[in-house]
Design brief:
By secondary structure, the chain is of the alpha/beta class. Helix content is 31%, strand content 25%. Helix 5 runs parallel beside helix 6.
């Protein structure tokens, strides 16, 4: 495991000097060739950025940021903090468990033992994410007959342990199907909790064999209890496409779900011709239904550039970090952005700088025209200090995070 230690957090009213901020692109007729930066002082007060000014007259007690680049703090928009194996001895995947139904049966055996220590390991996984500059996550928690409400309870304890420097939104996730294992009543119970922000789901056809029944139930819960929706979709073929289209149609019928409805993975999109991807992307964009990707690699390449081009909100997360579903999640959102840049051929200064958005939940220091748009006075002090000269370098080199701030509290690595 990675063990990172931090100096005592700096909080209250303080000033950072020698903070590197991006101020614009240096461009020619072919576009952005480099990124212009400058050194600034940043006043932090009451958890917010109170002032940004030239660094030549800092107060005597200012903290030296040593020229490190300030970027928006990272957000992991799809992770399972509740059922990691992180903190336990290494365990590769079993070749015997190949299908989702195989894994459900395995989970039913494994979860009772894992729940005994899931609070401690969840907290350790948060520490790993934080070592890479992540201060926010959308985390799913199992809700099914084997776990009952215990996975949620243990996860909430882990989050409470880290609440001073980490925030999360919770997705009630019926990993074993809504009706396949009689999880509907538990899901309704979770939907009524203020601590739960999203209703989840998984493969309405592949597990429950009834797309409309599962999604109608999920949508009604979300509408009744004012929640968002986040559905895991691994199903391919016509069933996968039908799931996407039906959920988009439901979002159109229920405007309160627009902008709060997401489909995680949606691997079927990687199997379609470009014309079909465009058609579905336009439908998703019109319904304001987003895609959340863990950026698979190898033979399966998600059409993220096409989704973004057609106006679909795309979020990114690690998904599995050393668990029994996958061992490839590193916990590092900057590494995810780097993987995307390499995969899609985003190599220019401009393209690399835009790729940062997938680590920061779509917040960028410069807009597409090179105009400074972050940080902004009177907004929350959520940032990282990176040993890099600009966003493009940070993405390309997966530059190290030297410090992060959450709600204004500054944590510096020792």
């Amino acid at each position: 495991m990675i063990h990172t230690t931090y100096a005592e957090p700096v909080q209250g009213h303080y000033t950072l000097k020698n903070v590197r901020l991006e101020t614009g692109f240096v461009s020619d007729e072919k576009g952005a060739q480099s990124t212009q930066t400058g050194l600034f002082c940043i006043d932090i007060k009451d958890g917010k950025i109170a002032n940004i000014y030239a660094t030549d007259t800092p107060p005597a007690n200012a903290i030296d940021a040593k020229g490190f680049l300030m970027l928006p703090a990272f957000s992991d928009m799809h992770v399972h903090l509740d059922k990691t194996l992180y903190g336990l001895p290494w365990q590769a995947l079993s070749p015997k468990k190949r299908t989702v139904l195989d894994m459900i049966a395995y989970e039913q055996e494994l979860i009772p033992e894992l729940l005994k220590t899931s609070t401690e390991r969840g907290a350790q996984l948060i520490d790993l994410l934080q070592s890479y500059g992540t201060t926010f996550a959308r985390t799913h928690f199992n809700i099914e007959p084997t776990s009952g409400m215990r996975s949620l309870e243990n996860l909430q304890r882990a989050l409470d342990l880290k609440k001073e420097r980490f925030s999360a939104e919770l997705v009630a996730f019926p990993q074993h199907g809504v009706f396949y294992t009689e999880s509907a009543a538990l899901l309704r119970e979770a939907a009524q909790l203020d601590s739960v922000q999203f209703i989840g789901g998984v493969d309405p056809y592949g597990i429950d064999r009834d797309i409309e029944k599962v999604l109608d139930f999920t949508v009604q819960l979300a509408v009744d209890y004012h929640k968002g929706i986040d559905i895991h979709l691994h199903d391919g073929g016509k069933e996968g496409i039908r799931t996407i289209e039906y959920l988009a149609e439901q979002a159109v019928q229920h405007p309160q779900l627009q902008g709060r409805t997401f489909i995680s993975h949606a691997f079927v999109l990687a199997q379609l011709p470009a014309s079909e991807v465009q058609r579905i992307a336009e439908k998703l964009a019109a319904a304001k239904v987003g895609i959340v990707s863990s950026v698979p690699f190898g033979a399966l390449v998600m059409p993220i550039p096409a989704l973004v081009k057609h106006g679909v909100e795309v979020l990114v997360g690690n998904d599995n970090v050393q668990d029994y579903w996958s061992t490839f999640g590193s916990g590092n959102m900057l590494q995810k952005a780097n993987l995307m840049a390499d995969m899609y051929g985003w190599r220019t200064e401009f393209e690399l700088s835009r790729t940062l958005r997938f680590a920061t939940n779509n917040v960028l220091p410069l807009d597409d025209n090179g105009k400074k748009q972050w940080p902004v006075v009177n907004t929350g002090a959520e940032f990282v200090l990176i040993d890099a000269s600009c966003s493009a370098e940070a993405v390309s080199r997966v530059s190290p995070v030297m410090a992060f701030a959450h709600k204004g509290k500054l944590y510096r690595k020792q």
